Amino acid sequence: MSAPVALTRSGAVRGAWRDDAGRRSAAFLGIPFAAAPVGELRFAAPAPHPAWEGERDATEFGATPFRDDGTGGVTLIPEPGIVGDSTLNVNVFTPDPGAAGLPVLVYIHGGGYVSGSPSSSWYDGAAFNRDGIVTVSVSYRLGFDGFGWIEDAPHNRAVLDWIAALEWVQGNIAAFGGDPERVTIAGQSAGGGAVLTLLGVPRARGLFHRAISMSGVLSATPLGRAEELGRRLAAELGVEPTRAALAALPEERVLAAQKAVEPKLTAHPLAAVRQMIGDGVPWSPVIDGDLVPHAPLDAAAAGASADVPLIVSSVDDEFSMATDRLQGALRLIPASAGLGLLGLARDIRRPYLAANVDVHAKGTAAVLGRYVSDAVFRSAALAFTRARGDAPTWLARFTWPSPAFAGRAVHCLDVPFFFDCLDAERIAHLAGDAPPQSLADALHGSAVAFISGGDPGWERWDAASEPTRLWDVPPTVAPHAYASVEPLLG
Fold this sequence. Notes:
Layout: E1 5-8, E2 11-14, E3 16-20, E4 23-32, E5 55-57, E6 89-94, E7 102-108, H1 126-130, E8 134-138, H2 143-147, H3 157-172, E9 178-188, H4 190-198, E10 210-214, E11 221-222, H5 223-237, H6 243-247, H7 251-261, H8 269-279, E12 286-287, H9 296-301, E13 310-315, H10 327-330, H11 335-341, H12 346-355, H13 357-360, H14 364-387, E14 393-398, H15 415-418, H16 427-431, H17 437-453, E15 467-471, E16 476-479, H18 486-489
Parallel strand pairs: 2-5, 7-8, 7-9, 9-10, 10-13, 11-12, 13-14, 14-15
Antiparallel strand pairs: 1-2, 3-4, 4-6, 6-8, 15-16
């Protein structure tokens, strides 16, 4: 059988057929959606990729913006860094490149906006292909390259990359069997934050039609803070904060300077947790008044993308492991005092503890771990959902307790269930040796229903009852299931 070929606007690409339990699909990997951001294009807005003649090989993943320093990045997901210059790529997985009108999922990876890769085996589109959905994973510039302030460079270069990738999908996805009028964007962690950001970006209007944010962060950097950090990085390098000066430096030097100017976590473990809550991520979308006119929460409250159906979810114990090593040190410290050390106002501590009696009994370290998760992720999920008012929104919590993390639902745990890839590499490290396939069937099936038809299968959010899907075995729906974070919202 000859290899599958698709004709994009830049030229033909040759992929590879795959077989999953007798179901054939095709993968096209490493297709450039923009020119390599090097040379004169370094720190510039993404530019169109030159057309090519003949068939371009698309059977191997392309280069990634993530440069793996041997630590594997910041996520619990295997996300390989691949060396090379042409880092702005998409991977397309399709049930049939000869089909027409299939729904499309575009996935944006996480990694704190400084790491992560679209080439993870967890983001393979095989399961979504099985269910009739074309799946696209995209790359974008990270850290200073993507978000750093430069005097004469465009702000939010990574956001421009997201938009360029979505524009590529609009112009080319029909060649892979997809419908450009049925595009859902999704992402987890920083990728979930990208989704929430794009909902408030005027230039992204019409490029997608539904959205899913999993453990999305609400990080948005004020322009003044971005400029301060950008000037510090240039000073660290001993150059002016201009495109020409910074682009003349080797990539390795800029990456080293990026790490040098990032806020350093204090050696005291409790102070480090407080710092993590207060500082957020140093590199994130910048509120520039133009491309990103408002912070995501403010944009939602103003009605941005109110016509776009959205699923918002979090996992119950996102970053609870951040305080595990403090159990001994905190065993004699009252939970209220511990929350005070993390900066929680006195008048909020009592109602917060009352709303979290289940974890209060496990000790102060457990309470502070829950608070970290609530302050960074879970309160954001409820706040964003409420900010959308009557816009079509569905709220969820992933609650299944992983035996690999002492019965907790930790950050990233929902991703392999969403992609229905429980046999992928390193799943046992996160979900144990026997993660429930029935839960993957339910969560993945709900995503398929939403991407295909706009309804995930439970009641959409309303202010009166706040129905929430609880992803466990079996899945249920409960009212006001985010009540434990209520005291943090005021």
